[in-house]
Amino acid sequence: MIAKLRGVIDSSGEDWVILDVQGVGYQVSCSGQTLGKLGRPGEPAVLHTEMRARDEVPYLYGFADRAELEWFRTLTMVQGVGAKVALAILTVMAPDALALAIASGDKAALSRADGVGPKLAARIAAELKDKAQTLSLRLVVERPSSGPATTQTPQPNAEAVSALVNLGYSRGDAFAAVMAVAGEGELPLTDLIRLALKELSA
Fold first, then answer.
1. Which residues of 12-29 are buried (b: 16+ CB within 10 A; e: fewer)?
2. Looking at residue 9, which CATH number applies to its domain?
3. 74-131 confidence digits (pLDDT tens)
4. Domain limits at 76?
């Protein structure tokens, strides 16, 4: 099992990249989100990978971060969502946006991906709602901080959801509200709860 590749970008296409790892070229299928984060040919790159076989032929799928890899695995648990469709979904939505879409039942957002019609979008939203919340909260808690040791980590996001659940809100509504107000920054717990409550009352 190849779980991670570190090498130099050789070339890339619409949905793939060839990574040169010590003289061996690995062709890896990727989402548009991951390809957008990679550099140009000749530049170093690291990909988290998943190997799967189709018609007894092995294929490698690569992801810029572990969150996208976990979502790929989760999406392909749904009947009708193969690797190609999962990558299409991850192309139009980053992991956080996908989590919010599933938590809020936004079938229109899911349907923006190639190969996802209204029925499949509804199935994804229904089957993954609970799993999406659990997965996203775990990734938020485990996500490393890129700043100094004193920088606040995203742990308050998970704590804010728990606080809202204790106040009587459903976990789905609480998760969607926190994701909506958290944005790209890292807010203190009290601010997250205050803004999420405002979102829930809107």
1. beebebbbbeeeeebebb
2. 2.40.50.140
3. 999 999 999 999 999 999 998 878 887 887 788 999 999 999 999 999 999 999 987 7
4. 66-141
